[in-house]
Structure formats: C-alpha cells, structure tokens
Specification:
The chain contains three helices and eight strands. By secondary structure, it is α/β, with parallel strands linked by helices. The protein has one domain: Cytidine Deaminase, domain 2, CATH 3.40.140. A hairpin with a 2-residue loop joins strand 5 and strand 6 (about 110-120).
Length: about 130
C-alpha cells in the first residue's frame, strides 16, 4: 500500500469486541470499505474444525459479501482474525494459508491489533491511521 490505511474507530472497537467475545477460540470476519478506508466489519462464524488454533471464515458470509460488493456495496478490503493465546502478527499457519492477493489482514493478539498486507512474497506490515468516520 502506497498510502496509510484508514480504519474507523468503530471498526477498531468492533474487532476488539469480537476477539474478546470469541475467546478462547479465534474470532474472524471480513473487513469492508473502499480505496484505502476500512469502514465496516462483518463478524463471521469460525467454521474451522479446530477453532482454538485456526480460523476459517464462514463461506456463506464471504459469498454474501462478494454479492453485496458487486451490487455497489462496500468492497472486501481484507480479513480479520484473532490469536487468543498469541501475538498480533501472522503465524506460520497464516503464512501457509495466505494467497498473496494483496488484501489486508488485521490480527488481534494480546491487547493489540496489527495490520498486514498479504503480498506475493509474504506479509508486510501496514501503517494505518484511525479516523472518526
């Protein structure tokens, strides 16, 4: 990303709430917005068979988000998940599952949220600013 990502304060709060509510399993969801602004978060079910250590976004939620985007809704900017017992950085499993599609990954760890870009060569940290709207 050439310019800093903008994330609304409401999205930051929603990510923290989702991580806390899902504990001890991994929370997950979809980040929505346009351009370089993430303005919405859709919390989804973690459908992975081992949700204590892995996440898988509910496929129906992804399909619904793609349909809404095609109908002039907010675009899928990336994904969110938590590491309830770990740090707010991509794990080895995250790296193995990443597709290099250039989307944003927000990861909540112990009392922090970090932002990453899923690049072809791996994850790169993303600078961001919090906005009120």
């Amino acid at each position: 990303m050439s310019e800093p990502l903008k994330v609304t304060r409401d999205v930051i709060k929603a990510l923290a709430r989702a991580a806390e509510a899902a504990h001890p399993v991994e929370a997950c969801g979809i980040l929505l917005g346009d351009g370089v602004t993430i303005s919405r978060f859709i919390e989804t079910r973690n459908v992975h068979p081992q949700p204590l250590r892995h996440f898988e976004i509910d496929p129906q939620a992804l399909i619904d988000a793609h349909r809404a985007a095609r109908q002039s809704g907010p675009q899928i900017m990336g994904y969110f998940h938590s590491h309830p017992q770990g740090h707010a950085r991509p794990s080895r499993t995250d790296a193995e599952c990443a597709s290099g599609d250039g989307l944003v990954w927000a990861i909540a760890g112990q009392d922090e949220i970090s932002w990453w870009c899923d690049e072809v060569d791996g994850f790169a940290p993303v600078s961001y600013m919090v906005s009120n709207a």
